[in-house]
């Protein structure tokens, strides 16, 4: 009986691999031939729930911190640029690994090397940030925070847990990128929802009266523990999806020539991709320094605004992950009219979305301000930002889509220039001038103005080049 069963056992795995390859080929053909609206909807909706869950978890974490007191809210707000840097590295790694895997012939070998590369990058980055954490926070203005001596011990332990979870979080985001590249949007969405759901549930459980009395942990430490447990659990689920659902073996010979070559190729692509991703957290860090010059209460308010902004820009952010898949593959297939149709539909959806969001945040601004902090300056500053900034998010959404589509068709230099202009030529100088003229209110008005200006500039540019068939436009 052993000899009868052995051929079936040896052929089972290749058959499963071929079946996965056929499914991936079908997904690619569907992206090229399916209804534009149907394809965009199918690519976007799963990611909508995933990104919503991810950023909701971040916002809820900040809400729990605000329940501890304005000092804890301010302290955590100072760490947001550091967390944004970690997120940028995670996204960059996901892009690099997904790009290499979709181009590779031997997917299994590269997948294992990519995960090892991810672990090495994550561990190195976590160690570097931990060693320089206090100087980094001091650079951001933490030294001027009156309650720094009071909250630093608990903030330090919170960051210990956050940095300890970096490797596991990177694995989650890398597998998320790989699943998206393979067209498994549902699996990718389930992964992020699982991670975010675990973080929310564990955070809520650790803030119950029973946990408060049973566990000798401060409030911020509880949030760090919740993030750590969620990241570890989600990373195990990510490896399960990669190995079982996608049938990708994770065997590797580290000292082989192919492994060394794979490491070199990953590193060569990693440097420019992550450098591009780091522009936003760098700008956020400089912006935090400008805000910190207005006092610690301004930092607390701005921290809330930074967490609400991704949720307000939810649809554009999701489209920047799904639209490039549609645009890139159709552009490569010389279907430029289909590309333009997809971009038009995406922009129209974003305009409707941002109009609704602006109205919701305008009418609920006072509730948000008081809900996060009872302190008058903080709550009033949050309310002001929620009345002004969301109106400019429609312009910002257009910029985000433009940049992502330029990257999708290989015009990364143009995407980089637009990003540099938005962040370092308009937003930061305007914010600095606004702070000098009218404090925190000036910063808010300046950021809104910068969004409008860069949006108008891109619209003017697109209208001027719409007759050139080889140039991607948003017209």
TrEMBL record:
InterPro entries per the UniProt record, alphabetical: MATE_fam, Membrane_Transporter-Flippase
Pfam families xref list: MatE
Bilayer topology: Multi-pass membrane protein
Descriptive protein name: MATE family efflux transporter
Main localization, broad class: membrane
GO cellular component, one term: plasma membrane
Lineage: Bacteria, Pseudomonadati, Pseudomonadota, Gammaproteobacteria, Alteromonadales
Coiled coil: none
UniProt keywords, alphabetically: Cell membrane, Membrane, Transmembrane, Transmembrane helix, Transport
PANTHER family (alphabetical): MULTIDRUG RESISTANCE PROTEIN YPNP-RELATED
Ranges annotated as spanning the membrane: 30-55, 75-98, 110-133, 161-179, 191-211, 223-244, 265-291, 311-333, 345-365, 377-402, 414-434, 440-460
Subcellular location: Cell membrane
GO molecular function term, any single one: xenobiotic transmembrane transporter activity
């Amino acid at each position: 009986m052993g000899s009868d069963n052995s051929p079936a056992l040896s052929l089972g795995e290749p058959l499963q691999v071929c079946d996965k390859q056929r499914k991936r080929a079908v997904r690619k053909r569907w992206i090229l031939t399916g209804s534009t609206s149907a394809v965009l909807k199918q690519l976007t909706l799963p990611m909508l729930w995933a990104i919503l869950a991810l950023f909701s978890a971040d916002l809820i974490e900040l809400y729990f911190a605000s329940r501890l007191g304005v000092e804890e809210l301010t302290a955590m707000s100072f760490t947001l640029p550091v967390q944004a840097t970690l997120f940028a590295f995670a996204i960059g790694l996901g892009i690099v690994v997904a790009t290499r895997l979709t181009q590779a012939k031997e997917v299994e070998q590269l997948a294992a090397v990519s995960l090892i590369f991810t672990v090495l990058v994550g561990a190195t980055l976590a160690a570097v940030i931990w060693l320089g954490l206090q100087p980094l926070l001091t650079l951001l203005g933490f030294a001027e925070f009156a309650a720094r001596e009071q909250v630093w011990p608990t903030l330090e332990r919170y960051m210990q847990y956050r940095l300890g979870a970096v490797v596991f979080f990177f694995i989650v985001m890398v597998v998320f990128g790989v699943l998206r590249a393979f067209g498994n949007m549902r699996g990718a969405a389930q992964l992020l929802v699982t991670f975010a759901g675990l973080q929310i549930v564990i955070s809520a459980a650790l803030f119950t009266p029973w946990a408060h009395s049973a566990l000798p942990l401060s409030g911020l430490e509880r949030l760090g523990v919740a993030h750590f447990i969620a990241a570890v659990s989600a990373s195990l689920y990510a490896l399960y999806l990669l190995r079982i659902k996608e049938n990708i073996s994770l065997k590797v010979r580290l000292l082989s020539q192919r492994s060394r070559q794979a490491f070199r190729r990953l590193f060569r692509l990693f440097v420019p991709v992550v450098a591009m991703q780091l522009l936003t957290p760098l700008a956020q860090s400089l912006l935090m320094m400008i805000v910190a010059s207005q006092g610690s209460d301004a930092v607390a308010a701005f921290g809330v605004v930074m967490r609400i902004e991704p949720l307000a820009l939810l649809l554009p952010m999701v489209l920047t992950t799904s639209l490039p898949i549609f645009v890139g593959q159709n552009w490569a297939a010389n279907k430029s009219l289909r590309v333009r149709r997809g971009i038009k539909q995406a922009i129209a959806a974003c305009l409707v979305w941002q109009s609704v969001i602006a109205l919701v945040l305008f009418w609920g601004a006072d509730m948000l301000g008081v809900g996060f902090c009872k302190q008058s300056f903080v709550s009033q500053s949050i309310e002001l930002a929620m009345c002004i900034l969301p109106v400019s998010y429609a312009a910002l959404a257009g910029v985000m889509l433009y940049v992502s589509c330029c990257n999708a068709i290989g015009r990364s230099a143009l995407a980089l220039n637009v990003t540099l202009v938005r962040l370092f030529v308009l937003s930061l100088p305007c914010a600095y001038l606004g702070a000098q003229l009218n404090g925190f209110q000036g910063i808010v008005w300046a950021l809104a103005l910068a969004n409008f200006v860069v949006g108008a500039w891109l619209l003017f540019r697109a209208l001027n080049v719409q007759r050139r068939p080889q140039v991607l436009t948003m017209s």
